[in-house]
Design goal:
Layout: H1 5-24, H2 29-49, H3 54-80, E1 84-85, E2 89-90, H4 94-98, H5 105-121, H6 126-139, H7 142-155, H8 160-168, E3 190-198, E4 204-211, H9 214-230, E5 244-249, E6 256-259, E7 266-268, E8 271-273, E9 295-297, E10 300-304
Parallel strand pairs: 4-10
Antiparallel strand pairs: 1-2, 3-4, 3-5, 5-6, 7-8, 9-10
Helix pairs in contact: 1-2, 1-3, 2-3, 3-5, 3-6, 5-6, 6-7, 7-8
Length: 305
């Protein structure tokens, strides 16, 4: 394996994305623990070989907070057998009421520490505040969880998760503007590719993938379309928007969105293509998103591909 910081960060991303997928579909009870342990090792390896630059350190902190948060969620779901949904949060004081043996206490403490370290490293990160809110809710700290969710919502007003969590905690969102979904997210330039794909014969899921350029997103999208031409991969729906949607986020500007499924996708045998002719393939984005940095954009946790 490539032992550069970039390789370790991207590997951690993929492990976390797979863990989230399994947790979302209530599967992989044993597998998730292995994935999270490897993600943690990758984050520590990236720390060891990096040059301690600020952006890489912040990315590692975000990855560690997510790893700790997923480990707590995994234990709550499969050891304590309580609810923990990444779209709504968990039970207030669930640790004290349902975890009589204290199995999740060290995991909750670790998740709280890791989330706070993320906030210290990247104050603009909505993910740090969101996972802090989840861990404090499970621990029974209503006031702390409320404050964390308020901060998460301030940084990502389009996220329904902290809104739902605040409602559960009987706390109204305070001082937050209505979400402007046409405005670019945060201070980084990036490309977001949303991919809807089949997970079985009847159900589909949507992945939100981050790229630092349109050209990189194109390469990935073209590969998916070619795979779909050879088998049932993408969740095409002729009556709805297609399963491939690309958005370009430029700091200070409106988001530019493209429905790739509607852009002359042709499928003949094993051949398939997307019309990219009027997309800015050569554009260099200002303030590109640091390599390996996950983001929470509206209600989706997005991972680098």
């Amino acid at each position: 394996m490539d032992e550069s910081p970039t390789a370790y960060l991207l590997r951690a991303n993929r492990l976390l994305a797979e863990s989230a997928f399994l947790l979302d579909h209530y599967d992989g009870e044993r597998r998730v623990s292995e994935l999270l342990a490897e993600a943690e090792r990758c984050a520590e390896a990236a720390r060891h070989v990096s040059r301690d630059d600020v952006e890489t350190s912040a990315t590692i902190a975000v990855l560690c907070a997510m790893t700790a948060g997923y480990a707590l969620r995994h234990a709550v779901l499969f050891q304590v057998r309580c609810d923990f949904d990444d779209n709504d949060g968990t039970l207030l004081g669930g640790m004290n009421e349902y975890d009589k043996e204290g199995l999740t206490r060290p995991l909750a403490d670790k998740a709280i520490r890791a989330a706070r370290e993320t906030i210290d490293a990247d104050a603009a990160s909505a993910l740090g505040h969101l996972y802090l809110g989840h861990a404090l809710t499970w621990s029974g700290d209503r006031d702390g969880a409320t404050a964390a969710y308020q901060e998460a919502l301030h940084r990502n007003p389009g996220d329904d998760c902290p809104r739902s969590a605040l409602d559960y905690l009987d706390a109204a969102p305070q001082g937050h503007p209505s979400p402007h979904r046409d405005q670019s997210f945060g201070g980084y330039g990036f490309v977001l590719l949303r991919v809807e794909s089949w997970i079985n014969n009847n159900d589909s899921t949507t992945a939100s993938l981050l790229f630092r350029s349109v050209a990189a997103a194109r390469s990935h999208a073209d590969t998916l379309v070619e795979m779909d031409a050879r088998g049932r991969v993408l969740a095409w729906d002729e009556d709805e928007c297609g399963p491939l949607r690309l958005s370009i986020h430029r700091p200070g500007y409106r988001v530019t969105e493209y429905d790739l499924a509607a852009r002359t996708v042709t499928r003949t045998g094993d051949a398939a293509s997307i019309d990219w002719s009027d997309l800015p393939l050569a554009e260099v984005l200002d303030s590109p998103l640091p390599v390996g940095r996950p983001l929470r954009v509206d209600t989706a946790t997005c991972y680098h591909e």
